[in-house]
Amino acid sequence: MFLTPHFLTGAAITKVVPNKPLAYTLAFFIHFLLDRIPHSDHFLSGISTGRKNKSFYQVVGPIVIDFFVGIALIIIAHFTFDNFALWPAIIGGILGILPDFFNALSYFNYKKNYLLLFKGQPLYPVEEFATQTKNPYYRFHRFFHNEKVYNGILGTITQLAVIIIDLVVLLAL
Ligand SMILES: [Zn+2]
Asked: Cβ distance 56 to 49 under 8 Å?
């Protein structure tokens, strides 16, 4: 799932759950449940071409934009409607995307991909990592993640629905 629905869900939880430690814990773990929903996703394979290749940035660029869309929506929503506390929402949002950040760390750690990245060489392929890695965290995430690829309308509608529900919670409740 894209980062924006994860970010907004983590943020929305901090509004409906008054107990902050509980809200932050839920913000993190609900990520795995959201990933069960059929969804489209970023195409990651180009990242293994390495940082000297254009394909690398065609993967990283949309992910960075996706991250800033989530954070921007929260900030704009807060200052427009003043209907929820900003910092808990941002912390909840970051916790909501942290599981995917850990995925990225797992990938860059796979067979020392980070060294290849540093040297500007091609990395071990994402597909190889996804199926071969023994990293317990990554396998935990993959266990929950809906691995079927829904890059059609359905995969987009489900994420839009999540975003709309989150915005209703943040703005209207
Ligand atoms: Zn995920």
From this structure: yes
Q: Which two tokens stand for residue 169?
A: 């919670």
Q: Residue 1 Cα, ligand 1 centroid: separation in angstroms?
A: 6
**Is it the case that residue 149 has pLDDT exceeding 90?**
no
Dihedral pair phi/psi, residue 18, rounded to 5°: -65, -35
2 in Cβ contact with 156 (< 8 Å): no
Instruction: Using pLDDT thresholds of 50, 70 and 90, give the confidence band for residue 63.
Output: very high
Give the CB-side neighbour count of residue 7, counting CA atoms within 13 A: 19
Cα–ligand 1 centroid distance for 129 (angstroms): 16
For 12-41, how does the pLDDT look when each residue is reduced to its tens digit (9 = 90+)? 999 999 999 999 999 999 999 999 999 999
Q: What is the pLDDT of residues 92-113, one digit of tens each?
A: 999 999 999 999 999 999 999 9
Query: Residue 2 is encoded by which pair of tokens?
Result: 């894209």
* Cα Rg, the chain, nearest whole Å: 17
- Determine the straight-line distance between the first and last CA of the chain, rounded to whole angstroms: 25
Neighbours of ion ligand 1 (CB under 5 A): 35, 100
Report whether 7 contacts 93 (CB < 8 A). Answer: yes
**pTM of the entire predicted model:** 0.95
C-alpha 71/C-alpha 56 separation (Å) is 23
